[in-house]
Inverse folding.
């Protein structure tokens, strides 16, 4: 199925560009240096932005100039083997890094993490209703709590009840998510994008540091990106010419079930469901140009995007209903519906005094209503009604709140280090070495996070210019998460599951940069070749012009002077020169003259005799010299037009 651009596609991409741009502004503004150099971190971030961008472009141009990609295609099988080895090596290193954090930053569950641990422990022992009345009320108000608790309970049943086993499960879910990110990026952008995303996600500082918390984010992210990978497989591989229609239908049902399971861990999975529906509904597959009766009914079913969307929604609703019933049986209480369950979160999210974060006032209001009514549903409804009153407040205050919450959610990626610093300090486990390590890790987290946002920002600009991309579904997930947390309770760690979105988008963007470099080099070479050919043509034309101009000048000169080129005429055989025999005999006049000269000038006799000897020895040379003199005289006559009257030295008249 081919995605086509429409106005909503352009709107979402443009809105994401604005959102990413604001994150860059807020992130640089929030960057804090030490007390001695408070602005050093801001300058360092900007410098890193430039160096990273320039470095990637330089490598892309160098690769294009050396045609590395073309040369490597000859070794496809070898590259595939190297890729497999590299992936395995990175996954092992990712596992080791997370294991290092668990071993060196010991963490006892606290706050919400303690709630998960204790409920899972009671579920394993089967005493939740007997000993956990307060927890049952809590689950009744927030049913999604039980999703991660079920996972922990299963781990405790298989491997034993311990914090360590829960943390190891986080490590496995995290490494599994790294692999899924690699597969998604490779599917969307090829080998380069896949390996870039693999490396970035494997060593992302905040996702490594947070692994010692018994938090739902790791299992939620794993199932979320498993759903994304399956969705991409369905839209890219099951089109109108597929031969596996029934398999495609079944996989759409599986996708709906997986999204429901993911939503049972955290309700934010509903955003992925909405993104999938927005993506699918406008799509149509082109069927083969053969009679419809010859095409499988399942293929015809998959040819319509809205039919696929309906199938996913039905599967989602069926599984969600089953899971909700199981939760009610587990706690022996009715749970609020989706429209009722967000009452408290909306109340907290619209509290301007607490900037949309947890506060004692709203928490007390929730539990007071629970105690008054005895019903988790009624308590949530009371919170929802009060939140609507807050929503009707002045638009200026709400807009200010929304911008502030957006900054708090996206401006940094410090939650991994911050939560460790806070809890280790409370548990008296924060040594000076650990504090230094965590503070350095916080700086690294911010740098890596901002670089990923920068390249995501650039990639989204590319998307506006290129053909429609399946990255669109990830863009919708980001926009949905940002929009949701403008309304409900927000914390910095709530963007945990969106970090892979930034990694994937930026990795595909790097692939775009390398493609553009190849285009730029090819275009430059082509233009240079055209310019050289044009220069050669111009030089040839100029030489031809000069030659013709020279000939024209000669013709004009000859026409103006009416001169006769005697030398050319003689050489070409047009004129024949003859002389009489007397020309070779001694002249009588010269003989008399020589006798007189000999009588008068006796000292010159010897010289004359020597000359006569030379003449006798070289008669041919003298004749040739006389001929040359004759030719020169003829040329002079042709040039001047005058015939001399005097005699030459030999006494001959021309």
């Amino acid at each position: 199925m081919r995605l086509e651009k429409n106005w909503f596609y352009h709107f979402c991409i443009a809105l994401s560009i604005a959102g990413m741009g604001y994150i860059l502004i807020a992130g640089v503004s929030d960057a804090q240096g030490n007390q001695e150099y408070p602005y050093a971190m801001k300058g360092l971030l900007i410098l890193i932005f430039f160096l990273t961008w320039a470095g990637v472009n330089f490598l892309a141009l160098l690769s294009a100039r050396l045609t590395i990609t073309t040369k490597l295609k000859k070794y496809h099988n070898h590259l595939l083997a190297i890729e497999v080895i590299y992936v395995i090596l990175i996954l092992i290193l990712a596992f080791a890094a997370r294991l290092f954090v668990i071993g060196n930053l010991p963490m006892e569950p606290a706050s919400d993490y303690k709630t998960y641990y204790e409920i899972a422990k009671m579920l394993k022992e089967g005493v939740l209703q007997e000993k956990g009345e307060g927890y049952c009320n809590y689950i009744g108000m927030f049913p999604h709590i039980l999703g991660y608790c079920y996972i922990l309970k299963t781990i405790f049943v298989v491997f034993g009840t311990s914090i360590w086993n829960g943390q190891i499960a986080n490590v496995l879910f995290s490494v599994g998510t790294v692999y899924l990110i690699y597969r998604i990026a490779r599917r969307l952008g090829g080998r380069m994008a896949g390996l870039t995303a693999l490396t970035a996600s494997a060593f992302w500082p905040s996702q490594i540091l947070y692994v010692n918390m018994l938090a739902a984010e790791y299992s939620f992210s794993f199932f979320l990106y498993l759903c994304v990978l399956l969705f991409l497989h369905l839209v890219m591989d099951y089109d109108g010419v597929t031969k596996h229609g029934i398999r495609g239908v079944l996989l759409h049902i599986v996708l709906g079930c997986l999204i429901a399971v993911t939503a049972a861990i955290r309700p934010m999975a509903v955003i992925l469901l909405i993104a999938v529906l927005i993506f699918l509904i406008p799509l149509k597959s082109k069927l083969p140009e053969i009679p419809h009766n010859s095409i499988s009914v399942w293929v015809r079913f998959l040819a319509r995007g809205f039919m696929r969307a309906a199938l996913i929604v039905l599967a989602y609703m069926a599984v969600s209903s089953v899971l909700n019933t199981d939760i009610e049986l587990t706690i022996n209480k009715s749970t609020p519906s989706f429209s009722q369950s967000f009452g408290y979160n909306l109340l907290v999210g619209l509290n301007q005094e607490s900037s949309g974060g947890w506060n004692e006032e709203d928490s007390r209001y929730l539990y007071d209503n629970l105690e008054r009514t005895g019903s988790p549903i009624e308590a949530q409804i009371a919170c929802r009604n009060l939140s609507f009153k807050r929503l009707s407040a002045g638009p200026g205050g709400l807009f200010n709140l929304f911008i502030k919450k957006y900054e708090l959610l996206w401006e940094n990626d410090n939650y991994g280090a911050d939560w460790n610093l806070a809890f280790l300090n409370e548990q008296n486990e924060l040594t000076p070495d650990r504090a230094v390590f965590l503070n350095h890790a916080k700086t690294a987290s911010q740098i890596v996070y901002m670089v990923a946002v920068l390249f995501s920002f650039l990639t989204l600009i590319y998307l506006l210019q290129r053909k429609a991309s399946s990255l669109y579904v990830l863009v919708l997930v980001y926009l949905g998460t940002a929009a949701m947390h403008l309304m409900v309770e927000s914390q910095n760690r709530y963007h945990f599951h969106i970090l892979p979105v930034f990694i994937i988008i930026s990795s595909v963007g790097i692939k775009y940069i390398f493609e553009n470099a190849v285009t730029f080099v090819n275009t430059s070479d082509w233009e240079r070749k055209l310019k050289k050919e044009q220069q050669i043509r111009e030089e040839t034309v100029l030489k031809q012009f000069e030659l013709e101009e020279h000939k024209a000048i000669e013709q004009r000169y000859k026409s103006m002077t009416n001169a006769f080129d005697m030398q050319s005429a003689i050489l070409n055989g047009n004129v024949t020169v003859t002389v009489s025999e007397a020309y070779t005999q001694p002249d009588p006049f010269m003989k008399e003259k020589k006798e007189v000269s000999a009588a008068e000038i006796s000292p010159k006799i010897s010289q004359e005799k020597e000359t006569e000897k030379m003449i006798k020895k070289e008669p041919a040379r003298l004749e040739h010299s006389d001929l040359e003199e004759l030719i020169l005289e003829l040329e002079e006559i042709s040039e001047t037009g005058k015939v001399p009257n005097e005699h030459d030295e030999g006494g001959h008249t021309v």
Remarks:
- Residues 596-605, 614-623, 646-654 have pLDDT under 50 and may be disordered.
- Residues 415 and 493 are 6 Å apart (CA to CA).
